[in-house]
Write a structure and sequence with these properties.
The protein is α+β, with helices and mostly antiparallel strands. The protein has one domain: 2-Layer Sandwich (BirA Bifunctional Protein, domain 2), CATH 3.30.930.10. Strands 1-5-6-15-14-13-10-9 form an eight-stranded mixed sheet, with helices on both faces. A hairpin with a 2-residue loop joins strand 13 and strand 14. The longest helix is centred in the N-terminal third of the chain and has 27 residues. The radius of gyration is 20 Å and the shape is globular.
Length: 351
């Protein structure tokens, strides 16, 4: 049976309250950012590189110059490179509501085009970003009035609920793997960033988690995260999944107290990942090494690689210490309004 199109008048009438709530939530967040001294910026979407992470897939196009010659360009998967160039230029607190594009992503929680709220603070620890996230969750819940249980607004997705006013749970990735899968993840990570793929595979087998012979260490970690860990996160209260293994944090600083982990966290509510935050790496030589490793892996798995934005690496040498984060704005609206699908909170969903 053919689904009713989003532009059908009756269906639009059903969706319209969610879309109006989206606008109210955005205005509340923009007001909060303004009160905190942030400058809202508008990064260009066309880029030299869409991002240099192995499992991110960009949309490519051609830019025709005045000379008639074509140059390969990409729609960005995040405004990160452009915004870090602004930090190098002297901006100190910036934020953007940016349309971003990611190929090979479609489902109830994924759209090929979506809105990312990304913001940066120079000279501040990445822990501060957790407080920012919680402020946005609370503003969204208040504005949308997603649930009236016990007289308080809540976030919800399917049968799961989350109280954004409760103190979030802060849990390291290593502790989460041990608690929910019985796996000692850091035993398979070296201080030099190397990994023990076979050691991790043996632990998965002992825990009854199926995997493929050609799975890499990163594949194995992702399998445990998706199957055993994420379903338990953000229920009742938000979860901050903190201190990712360094091999899974290509753009983050190593932790000062343990080089096996990095200053990276993800925020979960109702089992849904909402945000990804970092203590930002500012060493261009180390960043180049990580990009090269990521693109080598992309070439091995997907048969392609993206160029490195040399202008970004040049700017990185001038970027001050900073913390930055990206939050899926559409997902936040989904959870605040109780919408079952990301398309329900987009004015014009991607065909």
């Amino acid at each position: 049976m053919t689904e009713t199109p989003w532009w059908d008048a009756a269906r639009h009438a059903d969706r319209r309250p969610l879309l109006l709530a989206r606008g109210r939530i955005r205005r509340r967040i923009e007001g909060w950012l303004d009160d905190q001294g942030f400058t809202l910026v508008d990064p260009a979407a066309l880029a030299i590189s869409p991002g240099n992470e192995a499992h991110l897939h960009g949309f490519s196009t051609e830019a025709i110059g005045n000379d008639g010659l074509a140059r390969r360009m990409y729609l960005h998967t995040s405004p990160e490179f452009a915004m870090k160039k602004l930090l190098a230029a002297g901006e100190t607190r910036i934020a953007a509501f940016a349309h971003v594009w990611r190929n090979r992503e479609r489902g109830p929680l994924h759209s090929p085009e979506f809105t990312m709220l990304e913001w940066y603070r120079t000279g501040e620890p990445y822990d501060v970003l957790i407080g920012d996230c919680m402020a946005f969750l609370r503003l969204a819940a208040e504005e949308a009035g997603a649930a009236e249980e016990a007289g308080a607004a809540a976030l919800r997705f399917r049968a799961a609920t989350c109280d954004p006013f409760a103190e979030p749970e802060r849990l390291s990735v290593a502790d989460a793997f041990m608690r929910h899968a019985g796996i000692d993840l850091l035993a398979t990570v070296g201080t030099d960033g190397g990994t023990d793929r076979d050691g991790l595979a043996a632990q998965l087998a002992a825990s009854g988690i199926r995997h493929a012979p050609d799975d890499t260490w990163s594949d194995l970690m992702s399998r445990v995260l998706v199957e055993r860990v994420e379903p338990h996160l953000g229920h009742g209260r938000a979860t901050v999944l903190d201190r990712y293994p360094a091999p899974e944090a290509a753009l983050a600083r190593r932790a000062a107290d343990d080089p096996r982990v990095a200053e990276r966290f993800e925020l979960y509510a109702c089992g849904v990942e909402l945000a990804n935050g970092f203590g930002e790496l500012t060493n261009p030589a180390e960043q180049r090494r990580r990009f090269t490793a990521e693109m080598d892996e992309k070439q091995r798995v997907h048969g392609e690689r993206y160029p490195v934005d040399e202008d970004f690496l040049a700017a990185l040498a001038h970027m001050p210490p900073a913390s930055g984060i990206a939050l899926g704005f559409d997902r936040l609206v989904m959870l605040a309004t109780g919408a079952p699908r990301i398309d329900d909170v987009m004015w014009t969903p991607v065909p």
